[in-house]
């Protein structure tokens, strides 16, 4: 696990420097459609290249931008090279990276970095950890006990939910970087992602949510550390 976490750290340091000095042309969309017909920014592909350089020796990569990369291996790395890239392009300070390591489809480790504030959230195979990209000293990643606000991603898929949450006095924000939002679930009152989630958003982030209440199906993903809040929101979908 240490080799994977160290490689992710080096990749994120390089990506952070690249984004700090990015040229305007990389803020444009790539002319070619990527994996699953998604349109990527040029900067997404540059970040992917950096990850490939650092992670390809550790297993086959499955990237949101290009799909499968490398030879088949019992070790697979699920990668979102830049989560919230539209936020970055729009100068909204909530974006980062997500890399998750699996062996024979079993979760091994994850490394998620909020590049806007340099915070690292990681799972080493045993416990959840946090650190800082510029001062990588790991400590336990613990829930925030004073959460007052939740996160809802893709709220436009269910506008009627807005009134329901307001009636139940549940405040929320939409942050626009799904993997990061899920990874931070223990900090927030709740996280709700509407619609079918993608493996690139959930593979690593859910490793950090093992002790939380979770409902994950084809229509939504709901996470909360508070059972009462969890049940109130779940009732809306029944």
UniProtKB/TrEMBL annotation:
Signal peptide: none annotated. Keywords: Magnesium, Metal-binding. Pfam families: Inositol_P. Coiled coil: none annotated. GO terms for molecular function: metal ion binding. Mg(2+) binds at residues 64, 80, 82-83. Its cofactor is Mg(2+). InterPro entries: Inositol_monophosphatase-like. This is Inositol monophosphatase. It comes from Campylobacter jejuni.
